[in-house]
Write a sequence for this structure.
């Protein structure tokens, strides 16, 4: 029976934190490192049989190892996010059939969402967690004109994103062959013209990006625990 793996991305540079924390993935949130919130949700959900933790440097790896779910393999990250994902995919054991990919800078992923995503990927081979766009979005064209986009069809991508292993392997191989830059894994699968299911997220699942996010994250955590 093929197993399911979870790739937990923790190697981001965090340069937009402007030095307010030494490592945003290990920044304290509710008295625990940010990484622990994602790792705990995955462990409690039971969706993964194997973990690949993508780390930035040896110091970070040693700290992450104290909190990582098991069994886990640690893989050094690359220059860009897509390089880190490609390295993690290459390190997976051959019996892995499905793969979760999650940015650990998003600590609010929920156990019930992980279970739902796992059920969907068994049917669809590709599914992403996402939320509907509520702002008015416009395209600014080269001639200076604006074009309104239909927000009813627009979704903001989140993680986890989950795929059949052969599908995401083929997608990343195509990214490498075409020397493309992508910012999420679904963009790689789009190149294969494969459909991607969406699990709508009605809960806040932001990504820690700037120092101003930290007090907001503390507030969100307090609300989720009340």
């Amino acid at each position: 029976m093929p197993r399911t793996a979870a790739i937990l991305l923790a190697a981001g540079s965090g340069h937009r934190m402007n030095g307010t924390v030494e490592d945003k993935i290990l920044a304290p949130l509710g008295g625990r490192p940010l990484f622990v919130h994602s790792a705990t949700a995955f462990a409690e959900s039971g969706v993964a049989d194997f973990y690949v933790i993508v780390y930035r440097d040896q110091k970070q790896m040693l700290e992450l190892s104290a909190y990582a779910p098991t069994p886990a393999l640690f893989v050094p990250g690359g220059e860009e996010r897509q390089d880190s994902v490609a390295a993690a995919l290459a390190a997976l054991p051959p019996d892995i059939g499905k793969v979760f990919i999650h940015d650990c800078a998003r600590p609010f992923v929920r156990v019930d969402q992980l279970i739902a995503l796992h059920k969907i990927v068994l049917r669809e081979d590709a599914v992403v967690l996402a939320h509907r766009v509520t702002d008015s979005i416009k395209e600014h064209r080269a001639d200076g004109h604006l074009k309104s986009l239909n927000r009813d069809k627009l979704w903001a991508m989140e993680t986890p994103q989950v795929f059949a292993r052969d599908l995401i392997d083929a997608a990343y191989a195509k990214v490498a062959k075409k020397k493309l830059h992508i910012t999420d894994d679904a963009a790689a699968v789009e190149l294969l013209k494969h459909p991607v299911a969406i699990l709508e997220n009605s809960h806040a699942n932001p990504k820690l990006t700037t120092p101003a996010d930290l007090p907001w994250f503390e507030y969100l955590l307090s609300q989720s625990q009340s």
